[in-house]
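Help needed: design a sequence for this.
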């Protein structure tokens, strides 16, 4: 079974297990939330991003706040002081270079402070409905364990490899399917291999 056949089969099984659709949101909201999520637990990200975005809905409003105010709103996300400064700098760039809009281009997004390949891909997928694959730790781990990509690849190169073998709507759902599966079954430590529905396709299980 080649990589294309394997991931198509795996996604079919996971789609039967997890039923959801990609939810779009405002690009600026996606950008801010994804930045806050970096090295931060989901529940803290949700709490802090909602508190910030309740008060701040545009780059102009965010830029008008002092760094200390932003820190208070986003605490206790990881590296909250650096993120507060970075968000102000990012907002200034959006206003001056992009007329207050979030760019819908991967390379332009990656030029922004605090924005790497995963964050940029999240904005494109969830903010602009583009067919791309954000690669977080779950997506990277599962892709490697299944043998879809080489073990030593960076998240950016994993995205590129996955986009070679996935087309259309499957590109848009693989991120959320793998995240959910990674949290429940394919955990980084003590994965629940006996409960796994896709273990017969897994190189990690076979080893």
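Sure. Designed sequence:
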């Amino acid at each position: 079974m080649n990589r294309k056949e394997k991931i198509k089969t795996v996604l079919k099984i996971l789609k039967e297990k997890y039923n959801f659709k990609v939810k779009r949101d405002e690009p600026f909201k996606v950008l801010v939330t994804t930045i806050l999520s970096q090295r931060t637990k989901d529940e803290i990200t949700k709490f802090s991003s909602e508190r910030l975005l309740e008060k701040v809905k545009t780059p102009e409003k965010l830029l008008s706040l002092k760094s200390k105010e932003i820190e208070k709103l986003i605490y206790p996300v990881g590296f909250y002081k650096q993120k507060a400064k970075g968000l102000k700098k990012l907002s200034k760039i959006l206003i001056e270079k992009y007329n207050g809009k979030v760019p819908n281009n991967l390379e332009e997004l990656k030029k922004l402070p605090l924005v790497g390949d995963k964050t940029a891909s999240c904005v494109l997928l969830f903010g602009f409905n583009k067919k791309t694959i954000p690669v977080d730790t779950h997506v990277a781990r599962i892709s490697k364990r299944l043998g879809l990509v080489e073990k030593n690849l960076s998240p950016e190169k994993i995205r590129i490899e996955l986009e070679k073998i996935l087309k259309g709507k499957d590109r848009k759902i693989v991120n959320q399917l793998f995240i959910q599966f990674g949290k429940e079954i394919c955990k980084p430590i003590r994965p629940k291999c006996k409960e796994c529905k896709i273990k017969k396709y897994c190189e990690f299980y076979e080893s």
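Residues 27-128 form a domain with the Endonuclease III; domain 1 fold (CATH 1.10.340.30).
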